[in-house]
Amino acid sequence: MRYFVAVAEELHFGRAATRLHMSQPPLSRAIKQLEADVGAPLFTRSPTGVTLTPVGAVLLEEARALLDHAARVRARVSAAAGVAAITIGILGDGTDPGVARLAAAYRRSHPGIEIRIRDTDLTDPTCGLRAGLVDVALTRSPFDETALTVRALRADPVGVVLRADDPLARRDSLRLAELSDRRWFQFPQGTDPLWQSYWNGGRPREGPVVHTVQECLQAVLWNGTVGLAPLGHDLPAELAVVPLIDMPPSRVVAVWNEGDTSPLIRSFIGIAAAAYRH
Fold first, then answer.
1. Cα Dmax for the chain
2. Residue 259 contacts by C-beta under 8 Å, 6 or more apart in sequence?
3. Full-model pTM
4. Band of the pLDDT at 22, cuts 50, 70, 90?
């Protein structure tokens, strides 16, 4: 059902597979098996994507309700067994001091809770939230917020990462237009369009495909590629970051599924807001 909901919301098998962090063939096979079980097509396929059939539209409503119910059942069973846990997705930014403050404060508030961490790459800004892999995500916006609740924690200015020997690295600030002739690193096809557009400065770019922060930095170091990054993070001596004066700030956000009222998540959001105010 999670696979079906992903395809139904993305209306594209490739994007759904990327969102679910799986390859497309097993996703297609799972949907075909589901259609065989239902006894009717759920999607109308075309070269550009898919659309829901009337049967698929009915199933989507039921599937969302079923997944919500399954989450509640899991929480109640865990509570009855005396095992309380929360899975937190973190988007490749574990060195942020806000994360360290949040971790310490959450442990103090919930000493008996099992805290599971899922460190994710840059291709899924929701850190597996839509696929049901995490309960709450600590990430950066913008991205598709459909069926999600987002709480802003902090806004960081953004700069461009360059090789330290790049002539532009000697500048105090830059504008996006001054980088129009450069190659930029890209995220894989199927990555959230809002996310891709933001980190590409609002326009299509050309350059190598990357998945992680380290791959971004290596693309700059080896290929002279440029890319954007929040200011305030340590970089290797071979790299430099120059502030961009016409780039909107990057927001650190906490995200969870719309309607999820878990006390552990509510507590996480409150503690996160306090930790990032410092």
1. 65
2. 68
3. 0.70
4. confident
